């Protein structure tokens, strides 16, 4: 199976696509996402947004979500981290054209306005600017890598057990040292 990887070598799940376009003359960057934004696809999104902030930071980073069909709590966390990174660079992150299922998740969590979407009628207003530092994003990326590595090791061990290649080795008995003699 040929796995798709981003520039940092991170595997991009087959059910997720992300592409970033550098800022235009108006200072707007666009990140197009498609598929499912969850724990497995959060890191590639954060890396794509981070890559846009390397040079002259865009005034607005627009996440084009018309092809995003699933969003869970890990995806929300990734969006909040991206929003914090863009905000720390002096820009603003907005979500455009989300599908109804994605909008519903953002309405339930009361996050619509944070991403430039209209809040549902009668909804309380969220905090103005939750701050996520770059170090938080780095920790998130590292923890995702550790979880992925742990999963891979667990899957390899499971495969070895299933194929019978992982056999219990007979344990060598522990030799007890003789009791000290008392010459007295």
From TrEMBL:
SUPFAM superfamilies: SpoIIaa-like. InterPro entries: MlaB-like_STAS, STAS_dom, STAS_dom_sf. Gene3D superfamilies: STAS domain. Residues 159-184 are annotated as: Disordered. Pfam families: STAS_2 (PF13466). Residues 31-139 form the STAS domain. Residues 159-168 have a biased composition (Basic and acidic residues). GO terms for molecular function: anti-sigma factor antagonist activity. CDD domains: STAS_anti-anti-sigma_factors. PANTHER family: ANTI-SIGMA FACTOR ANTAGONIST TM_1081-RELATED (PTHR33495:SF2), ANTI-SIGMA FACTOR ANTAGONIST TM_1081-RELATED-RELATED (PTHR33495). This is Anti-anti-sigma factor. It comes from Pseudosporangium ferrugineum.
